[in-house]
Amino acid sequence: MIKKYLALVLLTTSVFFTQQYNIIHYVKSQDKIGNQVWSIFQDSKGYMWFATSAGLVRYNGWEYEVFDKEKGLIESFVFDISEDNEGNIWVGCPSGILRLKLGGDPSTPLEIQNISLGKFNDFYRVFVDSYQRIWAYNTVSASDVYFIDKGVLHNFSEKYRFKNQRVLHIAEDNRGVYMLTDDGKIYKYFVNDISEVTLPSEALGIKSRMFFFNSKGELVLCGQGGVASINLNDFTPNPKLNLITNISSMYAIETKFGDYWIATEQKGLIKVNENSVSAITEENGLPTNDLYTLFEDREGILWIGTAIKGIFKLPSLRFSSFGKKEGFTQGAISSITVKNSNIYCTTENGIFLFDQYEFHRIPLNIDRKDIVSPLFIFYMLALNDNEWLIGSSDGLLLMQNNGKSNFLGLKNIWVQTLFKDSKGRIWIGTNKGLYFIDRNFEINLFDIGIKDVSVNAIIVQRDASGKIESQNLFLGTTDGLIVINDIINNNFGNKITRFTTEDGLSSELIMDMELTSEGELLIGTAKGISILKNNNILPIDNDLTHPFIVDLFIDSLGNLWAGTNYGLNKLVKKDGKYIITEKYYEKDGLVSNEYTRNNTISQDKYGRIWFGTFQGLSVYNPDEDHNIQVPPICYLSSVQINDTLTYSMNEMRAYFSYNENKFKFFFEGLTYFDEKNVLYEYYLEPLESEWSKSTDIPNTSYGYLNPGDYIFHVRAVNQFGIRSNEQSYRFSISPPYWSTWWFLLLLGFLVLILFYVGYLYRTKQMRKRNLLLQKLVDEKTHQLKNTNEKLETQYKDLLEAQKKLVEKEKLEEAFREIEKLKNRLAVENIYLREKQTTVYEVSSLVGNSEGIKYIRKLIQEVAPTSSTVLITGETGTGKTLVGEAIHALSERKERTLVVVNCAAIPDGLIESELFGHEKGAFTGAHIRREGKFEIADGSTIFLDEIGDMNLHVQAKILTFLQDRKFSRLGGNEQITVDVRIIAATNYNLEQLVNEGKFRKDLFHRLQVFNIYVPSLRNRVEDIEPLSKYFADRFAKLMNKNITAISKSALEKLKNYPFPGNIRELENIMQRAIIVCKTGVITDEDIVLSQINGGLKQALKLKESMLTLEDMERQYIYNVLLKTDGKIAGKDGAAELLGLHPNTLRSKMAKLKIQLK
């Protein structure tokens, strides 16, 4: 006995209420399918089939293919669809059935077989049992039942005496095939026997239209009287389904999740599960309440066919939305608050209360007349069971449950968020900074310097249990994150910490914040989510790095929901990172993709999550989110060759010629949650080794492929990121015939034959030629014998001539060596002749002063070495004699000392003089000339007046001192010589270095060993021996007998300062010898008139005031005045000063002496 349960009374109540669902409608008016849909089916390849009044329709998600009478069907009107295990599609038609034989790809049928069974006005259905028998039965009138077994048609009614039966439905379980007749009876066929199934009387009253066996093996009946479920073993009813009454059911199915869906006549769609019975009707978005058939596809999507409104699908019930039908004149929602079982929504049209049945608007009755209109409500904070704090666009209100409201303050200020801490203070976030309400309910400004900053979100740090800790208050503002430390303990002298983009924040515009159970602060900004952890800002590394985050919410399962300016995202934390698991948009059932403000996501006690958007309210039911991980199906449909020929895959070849090298692959992915959101990934092996980026283009091209073996791989990706199994196509491109092995082998064989024929011909010709050559050889042999003796004689003559030639070459080599030495001697002779023109004052140092004795000691110490020596002192002190003495005592004394007066050589010639030049190095360089350094190889070079050398030549001198190498002017050859350098100068080189006139590095190179020669006025004791030395020398030259120098003459000389030093003394003594008339030089013979009479006194007066340079400038200037500006020649200033004229000119330029 079936116990009846009144499980649903459709006219009185409904769990689904009247919220709207994401129902997609396909109708004929959209150029899609017919409006009369009798059957829905999904084949083994994943294609959807619809039996309609306009034909048989196959749907792959983006296009429809219609099979009708024009394509070979008996009639365009089809009634039922099924498939056997060979992939044949069986279709029930008005006058019979037909079979469509399809290929292995989605192309037109390869074969259509029409099987006529009855009259035109009959409606035949088809059923394929587990033995692959195809059953055909007429549902309109009593007629025979047929089945096809192994291709043979059998009349079941005649064979088993089952005549004149109108069969409405056929189903099967492991006990046999069951047939439902129009009188409500069920017959079972098993092992060549047919018998009636005994049913309870209540079941017969249902007037069944169809039936099926559920997952428990129970028989489920569906008919005019409702739905019932019976266990055929003991006839016990299923309380979940027994008995749904007051409805006329047309079709029912059990889903893979254990739910039951029932298509009714005029009552819409009914869902039955363990917990509830609910209905979806036209008020929920169904196009019609009059339904005909149902089908659940491989992805769990429910397809619904109707007799008047076409077909529509219900992908999921996880999202629904509310509108005006529920009394909810919503618009943009600014906040959602859950209190007890009620949902409070603040909108641009006021405040609404949802009591789980319907929406009620709460009218605001405000005690102010000057309230701004329209008044926008931003936030609600429950104070107790009867009172609310309301944040609005015109200040803060206190509202009773009945809507009566009092204005508390903050006029013309937007109150955007409210928060109550554990101490009872209420924090108010506004567009004009932060306020709080104390225990006396007075509003106070919390002045932390953010009066012009908008505070969008407030949150207090909590512990792992959710309890508010007495620590930090976090403010999300338009100017970054602000942390107020220890605000709960009334510490108003607290520390303020700010975080901006410089600290790693994604953006300084913060819309919302959430605290996790682990103490992490999630920050929603205009450029994604940031995390505050351990006082450090960390970014979230996923697709939410950049979107505008409006609202954040963590549900009871720990999932993070992020509402953005485009769509809703669901994230979970895995391995320390937040991973996006789902993305939801309007196409998934949301009422809008755009969220308005924070606090617009909330969860009720039933686990449902409510979302407030710009377009209204949506709700997410986690019980309906089955998270089906069914991969899409991918097919490689066709291939186009060389942009012309297109082959379907059943026609596709595996081998192509070398000129068939351009391929375009067409593929398709089958998924029906979101048909348009199918992506593809592919690669061509071995040309590519990694999958391409996901693309929505269902084809790709490869051009000019080289001969070889290839495998094309492709796979589809659905909207959830689930990938299909990959499809592969192997093909080969053969090389051109001239590069094939058989052609090369044949070519090689032909070449061998040609070589062999050529060999035979060549051999024959060689034999003829050998005979002729033999004759010629004999003749030539005779001639050679005659000339052999001549050749021997000539050979002996050649040997003799070669011997003489070798001897001649040796003599020439010796001559060249002599010539080279001769040239070297000539160069040295030229230098010696030049040197002979220079008159040296003495051949040795003369004097008995301590200075001269010290100089002799230094000379003896440094002479045996090869060290560089720098000799300094005034002009005329005998620096050249010191240099000659060092060379004379050195190991290089056997070679000539090479002396170069740097001041006497113009700047343009000094480099050539020292280092030589190559032929053509400059105008007039007609031959190569060796420089002084090459002449001094193995000897010593004396660089006199080195302070007058220009910086360019100084650099080359420095390079030589470092590397002992140089190159001639105009040449690149590096010449290495062994030369010792002795340099002399009358300048203060340190001063020249400071003035930038002398290289500092060269100065340090020359400063290895310094000898200073004191001036003559500083060693007066040497005047007498020097005077006697010069007197004897010039007396011999002039053939005069000079025996002595008078004391008065010596006193006169000793009292003279000798600005010109020894050279000036030499000139004075030479003049004295000339004018001396007796054998004794008197004071009258000593003429000091070359200098004006007051010079001595002037020098004495200025000696302590003038520098040596100033004294020298004044002295030379006075000499030039005496000679009327004459520099060179007899009685010229150069002769009087004992200087070379060029040296004097150089000094005049350096001392800036000019004569007008």
From TrEMBL:
<feature type="domain" description="Sigma-54 factor interaction">
    <location>
        <begin position="845"/>
        <end position="1074"/>
    </location>
</feature>
<dbReference type="InterPro" id="IPR058031">
    <property type="entry name" value="AAA_lid_NorR"/>
</dbReference>
<dbReference type="InterPro" id="IPR015943">
    <property type="entry name" value="WD40/YVTN_repeat-like_dom_sf"/>
</dbReference>
<dbReference type="InterPro" id="IPR009057">
    <property type="entry name" value="Homeodomain-like_sf"/>
</dbReference>
<dbReference type="InterPro" id="IPR013783">
    <property type="entry name" value="Ig-like_fold"/>
</dbReference>
<dbReference type="InterPro" id="IPR011123">
    <property type="entry name" value="Y_Y_Y"/>
</dbReference>
<keyword id="KW-0804">Transcription</keyword>
<dbReference type="InterPro" id="IPR011110">
    <property type="entry name" value="Reg_prop"/>
</dbReference>
<keyword id="KW-0472">Membrane</keyword>
<dbReference type="InterPro" id="IPR025662">
    <property type="entry name" value="Sigma_54_int_dom_ATP-bd_1"/>
</dbReference>
<keyword id="KW-0067">ATP-binding</keyword>
<dbReference type="Pfam" id="PF02954">
    <property type="entry name" value="HTH_8"/>
</dbReference>
<protein>
    <recommendedName>
        <fullName>Sigma-54 factor interaction domain-containing protein</fullName>
    </recommendedName>
</protein>
<feature type="transmembrane region" description="Helical">
    <location>
        <begin position="741"/>
        <end position="761"/>
    </location>
</feature>
<dbReference type="GO" id="GO:0005524">
    <property type="term" value="F:ATP binding"/>
</dbReference>
<keyword id="KW-0175">Coiled coil</keyword>
<keyword id="KW-1133">Transmembrane helix</keyword>
<dbReference type="InterPro" id="IPR025944">
    <property type="entry name" value="Sigma_54_int_dom_CS"/>
</dbReference>
<keyword id="KW-0547">Nucleotide-binding</keyword>
<dbReference type="InterPro" id="IPR002197">
    <property type="entry name" value="HTH_Fis"/>
</dbReference>
<dbReference type="InterPro" id="IPR027417">
    <property type="entry name" value="P-loop_NTPase"/>
</dbReference>
<dbReference type="Pfam" id="PF25601">
    <property type="entry name" value="AAA_lid_14"/>
</dbReference>
<keyword id="KW-0812">Transmembrane</keyword>
<dbReference type="Pfam" id="PF07494">
    <property type="entry name" value="Reg_prop"/>
</dbReference>
<dbReference type="InterPro" id="IPR002078">
    <property type="entry name" value="Sigma_54_int"/>
</dbReference>
<dbReference type="Pfam" id="PF07495">
    <property type="entry name" value="Y_Y_Y"/>
</dbReference>
<dbReference type="GO" id="GO:0043565">
    <property type="term" value="F:sequence-specific DNA binding"/>
</dbReference>
<dbReference type="GO" id="GO:0006355">
    <property type="term" value="P:regulation of DNA-templated transcription"/>
</dbReference>
<keyword id="KW-0805">Transcription regulation</keyword>
<feature type="coiled-coil region">
    <location>
        <begin position="781"/>
        <end position="828"/>
    </location>
</feature>
<dbReference type="Pfam" id="PF00158">
    <property type="entry name" value="Sigma54_activat"/>
</dbReference>
<dbReference type="InterPro" id="IPR003593">
    <property type="entry name" value="AAA+_ATPase"/>
</dbReference>
<keyword id="KW-0238">DNA-binding</keyword>
